[in-house]
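so im writing up the methods section and need the Cytochrome P450 record in one place, dumping it here so i stop losing it
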Amino acid sequence: MDLQSIVLWLVIGIVSTIFLFFKKRYSYWKDRGAEYVEPTIPYGNLPFWKKMHTKEILGRIYDKKSGKSPFIGAFFFATPVVIATDLDFIKSVLIKDFSSFHGRGIFVNELDDPLSAHLFSLDGEKWKSLRAKLSPTFTSGKMKFMFPTVVEVADRFNASLAELVTERATMEIRDLLARFTTDVIGTCAFGIECNSMKTPNSEFRRYGSRAFDDPAHSTLLQVFSFQYPNLAKKYFHMRVFKKDVTDFFMDTVRGTIAFREKNNVRRNDFMDLLIQLKNGGLLEDEHSKKLGKLTIEEVAAQAFLFFIAGFETSSTTMMFALHELSLNPDIQEKARQEIDEVLRKHDGKITYESIEEMVYVDRIISETLRKYPAAPNLLRKCTQDFNVPNSEVIIEKDTIVFIPAYSIHHDPEIYDNPEVFDPDRFSPEQIKNRHPVAFLGFGDGPRNCVGLRFGRMQSRIGLVTLLKNYRFKPSAKTRMPMEYVEGNPLLSLKHGIYLIVEKLQIGG
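--- predicted struct ---
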């Protein structure tokens, strides 16, 4: 047999082996009697013909639900995954049977990339221990403690904005709000006065943006680390964030802690609470058991998570809220009327108590998160074989379960006219009549967003500050429909949102 024939047979053998592997693999859900979407070799149910945001990828699968099964089986390349479609099943995954789904399955490399080992990414006992340590830092009491700091930043933000808007101006809102939340989180998480309104290209903000926009590896390598985390960690030393991003935030945390401890500096911020956990393992004035100390790397990772989660999600939530309020002036005026009425009772001051009274503003935030959930998909990893209730289907250990929050929030069977922006969906009566996990703006269950109180507080203060001083109207420069960044797991826009901003006169 000549060389050409040998090569040909070798190629045929390799191709046949690969084909048979995928053929066998793609019978996974069929063999288990589960409803599934037919995959395509070698991409599975991932669209290889064009770039799509994950909300669209999962949305296409979600839309194929028949109601006969609580989930749809799918494949990401050769890996079988679960796309949850039934709210009772989702409640089971997030809450009722949490012990079987407490993991997230996100790649972490604590040794080479300490910032990756934060609360959102960790699983197992490490997550459980860290959650127990950090949960007391987000109580309503601690939010009241930080409240004046956030208001102070909001006042500086408003003063700077007033210089830019003398009477009326068309402004790009996304960047504007990102500067506000950068300053809030920079102050509360790191104790740094970023002053992004005056210096929008500050080093702190630049490295914060790079954490989202400049990942350490290509999408293909990210998929590899997701599917083969041990190989990626042990042999390839793969990172989540680029080394210079990690070095910057680690150095910032070390410097902040060293300065505060040397000079006995105490502040009303998140870093102060983390330092207490680093030094004593117990927050002052907390009636809880001692939970063990945080290392300097753990402090840096949690402060970093607080920054990237807080500045991006809150700024986009406020951005989408202002966009919708510009399109719905009646809702905007109703919110402004509530703000004016409440502030009159509190001497015109934004206080913790006055913000708590602004229930309609809070409904606007909830409706914004329904229509534009910051995290459009939730992840859970099956930690032990799980028998799906009322069926013979077993979800095997280590299987990833995707919960398509965006699709659920836009499902007309759950929300009437889901594309209509209606804050009254979150009146007590309507909430009571809906399924308890129909709204997943902050997740749900023991792994819900630990910082949801802070996120709501920051968004409320930001919106109240803006609405009591400015009126927002649509601009001809706004792009419609909206385009989202495909590689970003959060709901992030490719382009900014331009709105007309009008300064309000006293009593106007």
